[in-house]
Amino acid sequence: MTELIIEPGRSETNYWQDLWSYRELFAILAWRDISVRYKQTVIGVAWAVIRPFLMMVVFTIIFAKVAKLPSDGTAPYALMVFVGMLPWTFFSTALSEASNSLIGNANLISKVYFPRLIVPTAAVMVALVDFLISFIILVGLMVWYRFVPGWEIALLPPFIVLAFLASLGPGLWITGLNVKYRDFRYVIPFIVQFGLYVSPIGFSSNVIPEQWRLVYSINPLVGIIDGFRWCILGGESPVYLPGLLLSIGITTVFLWIGVTQFRKMEKSFADLI
Q: Would you say the pTM of this structure is higher than 0.85?
């Protein structure tokens, strides 16, 4: 049995070591959040299927049928939209779950010592499960359209990791602010809704004028979505490299800010929550 001694300065010197020591707690919290999400819904796992599928249908009708926007190469427009939905739904779900995670674990945080960073990170695992379910639907769509991905799909894991980090950084910052200022829970839906319209989900980013593409890529999800489409749809959906590098840079900055601000506010969580 491991003996834990709480002493002044321990959280500063041994914090990252403690994160590894509490990896079992991380697994327990992640499994609990996943179980609760699907056990307490009427349609359960089907919700993770219905939501992106209906959004794909709506976006396809609006942008392909009404606006007459082009797809990427020969890829079916619906398939292009659904591929764009994958990182977006992952980001939006992860941001929502992480931002409310500390409030939902108030009793645990106020009574037990452990690195608080575990709680929002474990909450993001719910979004990862939703992503895996949606990916299965994507495979079904590719079979339906008889679309075979190229070798680029082998490079998809790094973009999944990038999507994870892009959602974790803002999620950590907002969940810390949400503990101190409870009205921040009203900000999350606005961020999600705003991000839906400024990200290339229902259309290809290739329709953006060349002189504005780098500015448009300030939204880190632009490079991530383009990366997903390149990996799954192949060379017909080329990656705008300057935009991808900018997305990686901004994701890194947001992650650093999120972790830094979270660590600064972490000491007051037990008192405020």
A: yes
